[in-house]
Amino acid sequence: MSKRMPVKHIALTVLCSAVLAACGGGGSPETKLVDNAVAARKVIELIEALDTVEKIDAGDEASIKAAQKAFNNLSNDQKALVSKTSIEKLEAALKALAGLSGNSSNPDAPQTDNANLNANNNSAEIKDDKSLAPLNKPAPVHTSFISSSGAQQHNPHLQLRQVDGKPAFVNNQIGLIRNLDLKKNDTVVLDGAVLTNSAEDNPAIQVNYLTPESSITKYTSAGSTKENISPLFGKEHGIYSEVKTSLDDEIKSQYDEMKKAWEIIKDDKADPKAIAEAKKKVQEALPIYAEDFDYNDFVEIARNHQEAFTEEGMKEMVDNIDADLLNNYHSAAKIAEAWQKIRKGDEQGWETLKQFEPKFTSKLLWRVALDANSNNAIDGMEGSTPKTADVMHGIAYVHKDKNKLAFDKEFDGVYVIKFINGVRVTLHDPAAAGWTEQTFAHYVDLNNLVNHGYQSLGNETPIASVPTEGTATYRGLTTSYLTETGKPARQLTANVVAVADFAKKGLSFKTTNPTFHILENGVRVSTPVAGYEMSGSASWQANSNSFKGQVATKEHGFKGDLNGKFYGSQVDEIGGTYGLSNTTQQLIGGYGAKRQ
To answer: Where is the composition biased (Polar residues) (predicted)?
Structure first.
């Protein structure tokens, strides 16, 4: 046991000054605020004087108990001024002292009062009693999308991943989504995908791409978007897909180029040089499929080979699709034989190719694989063991129940973006939630051991525009995943209510109506659950638009960190992430809410 003098707590000194400044100096009603700060200061000094955990012995019992008693005697307003670091140190000291007895359940051993220690530890009671002027913003049309020209990679971001073989929350990795650029009624750039909203009077989302091998689909309870992909096959109508992919333009271009090449090659009157050039283009493209197929058959074949959505899983899936096509389509087998002959210098192979005129390359297989994965992942189709990873990620809450009813209109819409390397991004539709400044994304990257990730996205509030007085209530929603090693993840949704006090730089956070969702044969089954309501608080520093704090569930023993940011020019909305855990489970989620 060592003895140390109390250490001056600079953070609280600054806080005391801030309290006095906010009060305009001393004064009778405001004296209570100063008294609270002084009382909290005394407790902090008692905690700071405690030994570190590794030095605690039986001689420290009196000082630890005194610090615990002093903290428990504080009012909630006073506890709000005790830093999280001090609270954690007191908890650790109590646990260390209890451990010395060899029986932490001994009634004579001091117990950690978690309820008291964690109550309002970041902000005093927050009330919306000085409301900012209402925004009175119109609801966004269903095709609208959020606008942001700012960087996204440093927004609130959290991963639940495998670290040394165990699940762990990690928040120091760069955000998956780094670019979300929208000029009003123009384009939204989401790394691999560009959502175009260019019609001023009749806005409608279209999709283009910046990077290859990805697909995008919008899902609601009414179903998915339908893309007319007939032009990829030289037709105007009749072939549809629920995904648009970055491969589509290339497939269409290759089709047109191969069609012209075969017209030249089969023209007996064509210039020999033109024929040679056409053959060169065909050899460079290496088309392996003719037009004698049904696209939907391709997709069904692909679904039979659904693998875990990883880079290796996708490669294996494409190989299996190719093998099935060779067995099921006479033309595919003959074309493959013809290419083997040509590689060996046998020009007879060209006669076979001229017979079938192949126009499609392996790009078509990758498109089919993305399409098939999309259906399985979203619909939660039953499958073999390799399919389990995708079935787990079926988005149940956007489906209808047995009565053909949607769950809730604010939850009714997601954009699903998939990359050929196995990364899946689910972006909550901001228009469905009534948001114009932010949204959040859930993603899975099994290649990099990321089981679940959440990232907040949007147009952040300029720091200078964050108010220094006034209050506001934010209402919105959250989606999350409850995970436990060896068990399927469970989808949990809830409503969010947050109240911010800009003078106190504090925010209260609560969720209500927690509901689990699963899919049974493509039908949503939603079950309200008690005890998963969350409550907590957060705070921010001067010259900041981001807040941090702690949150815990009403029951089940979950507690953890809450992160968020203000979005919009007038702190219009908030968004962020949270990660909680108990002894065996983890709860990771994202949220968004708009000012009332």
So the answer is: 144-154
Tokens linked to 445:
């990257």
The mean-pLDDT minimum among 40-49, 396-405, 527-536 falls in 40-49
**pLDDT tens per residue, range 440-454:** 999 988 888 899 999
Would you give the distance in Å from CA 124 to the centre of its chain? Answer: 30
Taking the CA atoms of the chain, what radius of gyration do you get in angstroms? Answer: 30
106 domain residue, yes or no: yes
Q: What token pair was written down for 234? A: 């030289």
301 with 344, same domain: the answer is yes
Q: Looking at residues 247-263, what average pLDDT do you find?
A: 95
Residue 148 near residue 182, CB atoms below 8 Å? yes
d(CA 304, CA 381): 11
Q: Determine the Cα–Cα distance for residues 195 and 439; give it in Å rounded to an integer.
A: 15
Task: Characterize 174-191 residue by residue with b for buried, 16 or more Cβ atoms within 10 angstroms of its Cβ, and e for exposed.
Answer: ebbbebbbbeeeebbbbb
What digits encode the pLDDT tens for the residues 333-379? Answer: 999 999 999 999 999 999 999 999 999 999 999 999 888 875 444 43
508 and 410 co-located in one domain: yes
Mean pLDDT of the region 557-584: 97
Phi then psi for 515, rounded to 5 degrees? -145, 130
Q: What angle do CA 13, 17, 18 make, to 5 degrees?
A: 115
Q: How many residues does the chain have?
A: 596
Spatial separation of the C-alpha atoms in residues 9 and 41, rounded to whole Å: 8
Asked whether residue 206 is assigned to any structural domain, the reply reads yes
Whether residues 475 and 343 fall in one domain:
no
Q: Are residues 201 and 312 in the same domain?
A: no
The per-residue pLDDT for range 412-461, each reduced to its tens digit, is 999 888 888 878 889 999 999 999 999 999 998 888 889 999 999 999 99
Confidence of residue 105 (pLDDT cuts 50, 70, 90): very low
Tokens of 149: 């020209």
d(CA 545, CA 433): 22
End-to-end CA distance of the chain: 54
Domain count, the chain: 3
% of the chain with per-residue pLDDT over 90: 52
Give the domain range for residue 351: 247-371
Average pLDDT over residues 575-595: 98
Residues 509 and 413 in one domain: yes
Domain shared by 437 and 517, yes or no: yes
How far apart are the C-alpha atoms of 581 and 115, rounded to whole Å?
Answer: 16
pLDDT at 400: 93
Evaluate whether 354 touches 262 at the Cβ level (below 8 Å). yes
Asked whether the beta carbons of 16 and 22 are under 8 A apart, the reply is: no
Q: Is 386 exposed, middle or buried (0-12, 13-18, 19+ CB in 10 A)?
A: middle
